Amino acid sequence: MNLPIHLIDLLIILAYFAAIVGIGIRVARRTHSGEDLFLAGRKLVWPVIGFSLFASNISSTTLVGLAGNAYRYGVAVSAYEWGTSIVLVLMMFFLIPFYIKSRISTVPEFLEKRYGPKARRYFSALNIFLSLVVDTAGSLFAGAMVLQVFFPGLNLWVTCIVLAILAGVYTAAGGLAAVVFTDVIQGIILLLGTATLAVICFAQFDYSWTAVVEGVQASEAYNGHLSMIRPPSDPDLPWPGMFTGVLLLGFYYWGMNQYIVQRVLGAKDVNHARYGALLAGFLKLTPLFIMVLPGVMAVVLLPDLADPDQVFPTLVREYLPVGVLGLVMAGLIAAIMSSIDSTLNSASTLVTLDFIKPRRPNMTEKETAHVGRICTFVFMIISALWAPMIQYFAGLFDYLQQILTFAVPPVIILFVMGVMTNRGGAKTGLVTLMGTHAVSIVLFVLQAMGIYTLHFTYTAVILTVAAFLIFQVAATTEPRPEAGALADLTWSARVADAKVAWYADPRVLAGVLLALTAVSILMFV
Q1: 329, exposed or middle or buried, with CB in 10 Å at 0-12, 13-18, 19+?
Q2: pLDDT score recorded for residue 67
Q3: Which residues contact 292 (CB under 8 A, 6 or more apart)?
Q4: pLDDT tens digits along 58-84
Q5: What mean pLDDT comes out for the span 499-520?
Q6: Which DSSP category does 404 fall into?
Q7: Which of 71, 62, 64, 4 is nearest to 301 (CA)?
Q8: CA gap 66, 118 in Å, rounded
Q9: DSSP state, residue 388
């Protein structure tokens, strides 16, 4: 039999699938209520939360997109990774305490407590849209593209559909619990697989960093690939945008996106949620070294590659030995499944809890879980049908970032202003969302016409400032709430008090995380 990969590698991949399905079936037997399905019974502990956050984010889109953009632009693209550490620290202090204390089931539910039901439904619909066309579809497309490298005869449409079905079945059965416990396995496989590939790539330079630097700088494609800081006019990732627009988009992604935040909402208590976020922050420092640098090295190892999005799968195919290739392939499939299951679960959670249950308040827990499973299957189909359309966009990573740029700035302002001040109510919330998105549409049209050409990181800043100004103007038309009415929803210094030993204090651990982040940046300045 003429297999495109060695039988040993294929057996490793099949063993992984068997393990994941087994976990899904076992967890499904303990999933009976809506809270079980959507929030894992609110029993998640910090190691599970941390690895699940990491695995869900380090998706196939990240593996493919990071390596591809590193091949194009260099190490500066790692800003999307180390920037997460900064964002997670902010999230830990300013959002997580309120999420856990209010015992919300969806992120838009928190927005309702602050700005009313219309703001909740508006943001929930936006979140569902982004989950389907950005997160789920992007993961399906990247996963199918990777598999096509190893199995060239695969049809893009069919592959997307099969991947969606595989992830959708065990997600619908086991819910968030199945998602997070498979994420732990997937996170470990991702780290082992990508670290192995990074070491093997480094071995091609005789384990000499000097040889890497000289080889990359001598390549025809060299364009500051080893510098974290790129000029303000750089068309790829200007440094002012790196420290503004990238962090703004990251703050939404990690702090307000149901797809990510859902595992935080399932935490046992606020400290488990905080420690889980910190663990994810530490894990997010690794992609620079095990995912981005191999993409930079590929400038030398794969100098004539036509499509940069093929860098990671080509490195896997060309440089990994039998057995190890199967491990990394399992990691790739883990990345695919991890993102798809997370986004499907979050989208079904939003529809069920933000739209259906409020209109049918007498639904039993069993009925709620049943509706959630139906929604999962529906979204599975929609995402599978849309995913192949991404091939018509310029690049996978650019596709993901551009959509977020135009969609999320008003959401960021509502959460920040909602937590930090007592200004603005239901009217302000809705006006800020609708007004900013009107500006977004104008800029999007001007961009499509070639009139507006600023980098998307600058666009994120412009739209965030516009949202802030719209909020301030709208807030003047509403009276401030009575003193104490928002006491449980607005920030104060007492919120940061963890009441633990100094060495376990989240503030101390956050300081260590930020220091390591600074070192990672300075290594490539």
Answers
A1: buried
A2: 87
A3: 66, 67, 70, 75, 77, 78, 81
A4: 766 677 778 888 998 899 989 889 999
A5: 88
A6: H
A7: 71
A8: 37
A9: G
Residue 439 burial (10 A CB sphere; 0-12, 13-18, 19+):
middle
The Cα–Cα gap between 25 and 27 comes to 6
In the predicted model, what is the mean pLDDT of the chain? 82
Cβ-contact 275, 263 below 8 angstroms: no
Say how far apart CA 160 and CA 86 lie, in whole Å: 34
Q: Where are the domains of the chain?
A: 7-404+500-522, 408-491
Token representation of residue 127: 């979140």
Nearest to 278 by CA among 44, 515, 506: 506
Answer yes or no: are the C-beta atoms of 406 and 443 closer than 8 Å. Answer: yes
What is the rounded distance in angstroms from the CA atom of residue 366 to the CA atom of residue 197?
45
- The answer to whether the CB of 404 falls within 8 A of the CB of 249 is yes
CATH of domain 7-404+500-522: 1.20.1730.10
Query: Could you please report the per-residue DSSP string of 226-281?
Result: T-S---TT-SS--HHHHTTHHHHHHHHHHHT-HHHHHHHHTBSSHHHHHHHHHHHH
- Asked whether the beta carbons of 455 and 428 are under 8 A apart, the reply is no
Could you write out the three-class secondary structure of 169-222? HHHHHHHHHHHHHHHHHHHHHHHHHHHHHHHHHHHCCCCCHHHHHHHHHHCCCC
CA end-to-end span of the chain, whole Å?
51
44 three-state secondary structure: strand
What is the residue whose two structure tokens read 């794969």?
Answer: 302
Q: Give the type of residue at 281.
A: G
* Of 414, 406, 401, the residue nearest 452 (C-alpha): 406
pLDDT given for residue 398 in this prediction: 58
The DSSP string of 320-387 is PPTTHHHHHHHHHHHHHHHHHHHHHHHHHHHIIIIIITTT-TT--HHHHHHHHHHHHHHHHHHHHHHG
> What six digits make up the tokens of 173?
């059965």
Which pLDDT score, from 0 to 100, does residue 471 have?
96
Residue 483 banded pLDDT, cuts 50, 70, 90: low
Q: At what angle do helices 311-319 and 293-301 cross, to 10 degrees?
A: 70
Number of helices (H), then strands (E), belonging to the chain: the values are 25, 0
154-206: pLDDT as tens digits: 777 788 777 777 777 656 655 666 667 777 877 787 788 889 889 999 999 99
3-state helix, strand, coil in the chain (%, to 5): 75, 0, 25
User: How many angstroms separate the CA atoms of 317 and 437, rounded?
Assistant: 43
For residue 366, count CB atoms less than 10 angstroms from its CB and return exposed for 0-12, middle for 13-18, buried for 19 or more.
exposed
Dig out the tokens for 329 from the structure: 């392939």
